[in-house]
Design goal:
By secondary structure, the protein is of the alpha/beta class. It has two domains: about 150 residues, Rossmann fold (3-Layer(aba) Sandwich); about 110 residues, Rossmann fold. Helix content is about 45%, strand content about 15%. It contains eleven helices and ten strands. The chain has a six-stranded parallel beta sheet, sandwiched between helices. It has a four-stranded parallel beta sheet with strand order 6-5-7-8, sandwiched between helices. Strand 3, helix 3 and strand 4 form a beta-alpha-beta unit. Helix 1 crosses helix 10, helix 4 crosses helix 10 and helix 7 packs antiparallel against helix 8. It is globular, with a radius of gyration of 18 Å. The model has no long low-confidence stretch (mean pLDDT about 95). Bound molecules: D-glutamic acid.
Amino acid sequence: MNNSPIGIFDSGVGGLTVMREVMEQLPYENLIYFGDTARIPYGSRSEQTIKKYAHQCATLLKNKDVKTIVVACNTASSIALDDLQKNFDIPVIGVIDPGARSASTVTKNGHIGVIGTTATINSGAYQSKIMDYKHDAEVIGIPCPLFVSIIEEGWEYSNVAELTAEKYLTELFEHDIDTLVLGCTHYPILRYTIKKVVGPYVKLVNPAFETAKDLKQLLIEKNLLNESYELPKYEYYVSDAPERFRRIGGNFLKKEINNLSEIAIDNL
Ligand code: DGL
């Protein structure tokens, strides 16, 4: 069991920002990544559809005998995590709780911004988790749906990215935030532009980093750490367009993507 892989899924390439952190913090773990590239974006879909898709992604990974599942998608974590935890008999963790916890400890003035997809922000998941950890926090959620397309075009350092960030994020200044949660798996790629817009005094929280930390803790507690120190195996699956995934994903992961296959998901 201990050398069984960890399963990680997202609606597409974005979850690779989480996988990158897991590779760094858990360098001996075997990993299987699934990106539901045929059905991205999840962020503009209904709750019912997001739950169905998340269930199918988790089933696909479970069928590959993973020992634990990381929901490396903020949208799926916001909407479907509870269902997945109820329906699967292995540990399932998402990105919201680690990100919210970190934000609540990082903030000094209690004014916290959260940016994410429309579904993530509308679900209120980050807002209520942060309030659980810090009752007197003021949390301002702003959906930034265009960021995903800008990043997938590779325009993260462009004027387009900066203007879009200004348009979305100016409202945050009125609330005097000192902490901003990057509540979408793609956004860490855009962090330099976001930082330029929000300024040096706003701290950015990357839930991907925090999630990998929590995952490590979970594996230790459940006695699931891989104790073999062999080179780990990484496998990737997508539901569509593997070549696009390889190209964009390589940029997210900062390494070449091998062992990549296309796999059908709709009938799971
Ligand atoms: N991976 C999604 C998230 O973190 C963003 C892309 C999508 O909308 O599916 O919310």
